[in-house]
Amino acid sequence: MQPDVLIEATGLSAGYDGTPAISGVEFSLSAGQTLALLGPNGGGKTTLLRALLGELRPIEGTLQVGARCGAVPQTERSRLDYPVSALDVATMGTLPRLPWWRRPGRHEREAARSELERVGLGALAEQTFGRLSGGQRQRVLIARALVQDAGVLLLDEPFSGLDRPSAEGLEALIDELAQEGRAVVIATHDLEQARACDLVLCINKSQIACGQPERVLGDLEVLEATYGGAIVEIPGAEGRAILPPHHHHH
Amino acid sequence: MLEPLQEPFMQRALAEVILVGVAGGALGCWVVFYGFSYAAESLAHSLFPGLVIASIAGIPLLLGATPAIVVAALAIALSARIAGVGREAAVAVVVTTMFGLGVLLALSPQSPPGIETLLFGDVFGATDADLATAAGFAVLAIVALRLLHGRLLVAGFDRGAARSLGVSPAFADAALLILLAAGTVVAVQGLGNLLVVAVFVGPAAAARQLSERMLPMMALAAGLAVLAGVGGLYLSYYAGTAGGASVALAIVAVYLLSLPLGQLRRSRRAFAPAEVTIA
Questions:
Q1: Residue B27: how many CA atoms within 13 Å on its side-chain side?
Q2: Which residues of B touch A (CB under 8 A)?
Q3: In angstroms, what CA-CA distances link A110 with A114, A125, A147, A177, B152?
Q4: Which of B157, B165, B279 sits opposite A93 (nearest CB)?
Q5: CB atoms inside a 10 Å sphere around CB A225
Q6: Distance between CA atoms of B157 and B169, rounded to whole angstroms?
Q7: 20 to 30 A from B95, CA-CA: which of A65, A126, A173, B152?
Q8: B164/A69 touch (CB, cutoff 8 Å), yes or no
Q9: What's this model's pTM, rounded to 2 decimal places?
Q10: Does residue A1 surpass a pLDDT of 90?
Q11: What's the CATH superfamily of B7-261?
Q12: pLDDT tens digits for range B117-163
């Protein structure tokens, strides 16, 4: 791997119980770059994220990850009725470096607080996590990954359910974090957000394409192979506007 | 008020409900957030045959309850692995089998009279050994919950990301279930097989209405469990009602009282001035 390459996958297959859920994955991502991971539900985005986290071993091929990975899951998956503050959640990022019998102390909480400030949530550190807005919760989970000192951030649908200003604010934060030398992988349904990334990887059981957004997103065949036949061309839209088939929430 | 305290049986019963209340209330918060309330009830019922055998053999209840709960836990773990049998169904089948076996034994001619105390508890019959066991459990539970706090918090919050934070959700589940099993074995003496679940679920559910942070919630649940325990014993002393049932009913009363208080607290928050908002 070259020095600034943080993720390198070659001919990667990964899956469950020896059965590949994704195959032929081939890409490399350097420090400072963002990668949009596009694909239908069940197309293997989560499998690839789990492989990057080291939870799944490659069945074929290789996957090298040159920095600690911080997972930023969908906030709807975490519990909103849970009795924790934003600071409690960010502090969870200190656990991997503590011995199992130690509870995070003042030092750990200070580290967590400064990362909350970093993501613009210093004033809401003591707020109950479930009372925060979707965008704020996403920032708390990003702060938790920063507390882990993650060089690679893995975001799962970070923009889903966010209004436009929140999504734009989050996008700006993600760009800043990448510019500081992290590699960022964003699983998303949103083609607009994908366009703003340095690289786009389309996956539907196997890798369809990977490259710069203009090239990948400009190719209707690639998008058809990624999302199946259900692509709509919006008449009258500038260029070719395409709606992935599952824009609504479940 | 102080008169009942003169009685040694009352002193021991109070010590028992305080020890069980502190540990059970604190542990109960995790039981509630991990969705283990049904497991708590099941564990209690499935150790019934162990209690009956101990009582027939004239050995301490603890010695019968412990192997029974281990057998039940293993049976649940194994039957949940059979394809097509979910965890809930596995629990239901094992619990009914174990409880049925217990009833079968309890109704046999060999069983001594007074077997109903196994079902409903005998909090006023707490022996010194019972108190020592309860104290041991209280210390164990508090030390374990203190040590595991961070990990339990992570795994309960977000199981999917727990592993990436160095926490195994299966380990957290197992640790909690072991503590819960130990607590059930200890508390069943006083509260009985049918009512013991109250101390693990009621105070925690009430505290959840009144607090939004884990540690204060645990302290509150422990306090409410002790309050309900003492209140139940006084009720039993003056009204002549059954001890275990009075404590269980006091716990339910505490929970019911917590509901309007929780509602009030939430509506106050809703009218509080808007806090800083950031997109």
A1: 34
A2: 33, 146-147, 149-151, 153-154, 156-158, 160-161, 163-167, 208, 211-214, 217, 275-279
A3: 6, 11, 10, 20, 21
A4: B165
A5: 15
A6: 10
A7: B152
A8: yes
A9: 0.87
A10: no
A11: ABC transporter involved in vitamin B12 uptake, BtuC (1.10.3470.10)
A12: 888 888 998 889 999 999 999 999 999 999 999 999 999 998 888 98
pLDDT of B225 higher than 50: yes
Residue in chain B closest to A124 (alpha carbons) equals: B276
Whether residue B156 and residue A82 make contact (CB cut-off 8 A), yes or no, is yes
- Per-residue model confidence (pLDDT) at position B75: 84
Residue A184: predicted pLDDT: 97
**B214 min Cα distance to partner chain A (Å):** 5
Average pLDDT, chain A: 88
pLDDT at B192 over 90: no
Domain ranges of chain A: 1-67+151-250, 83-148
- How high is the ipTM of this complex? 0.85
Minimal-distance CA residue of chain A relative to B148: A101
Could you tell me the two tokens for A215? 């090239």
DSSP H/E element including A22: strand A19-30
* Contact between chains at B147 and A128 (C-beta distance less than 8 A): no
Q: How far is B39 from chain A (nearest CA, A)?
A: 20
**How would residue A191 be classed by pLDDT, with cut points 50, 70 and 90?**
confident
* One-character DSSP codes across B196-239: THHHHHHHHHHHHHH-SSHHHHHHHHHHHHHHHHHHHHHHHHHH
pLDDT score at B191: 87
Let me know if domain A1-67+151-250 sits in CATH 3.40.50.300: yes
Can you give the pLDDT at residue B158? 87
Q: Which amino acid is at A6?
A: L
Residue A62: CB partners within 8 Å, gap ≥ 6? A8, A9, A10, A11, A12
Q: Give the whole-angstrom CA distance, residue B239 versus residue B246.
A: 10
Interface check A5 vs B, CB under 8 A: no
A220-240 residue pLDDT tens: 888 888 887 655 555 544 444
B121 closest CA partner among B28, B253, B16, B200: B16
Residue spans of the domains in chain B: they are: 7-261
Q: What is the mean pLDDT of the segment spanning B256-271?
A: 88
CA distance A26 to chain B (A): 23
CB contact under 8 A, A96 and B213: no
* Residue B106 to residue B49: CA distance in whole angstroms: 8
Distance from CA of A159 to the nearest CA of B (A): 12
The letter for the amino acid at B95 is V
**DSSP one-letter code for A14:** E
Q: Does A84 touch chain B (CB under 8 A)?
A: yes
Helix axes A134-147, A164-179, angle to 10 degrees: 10
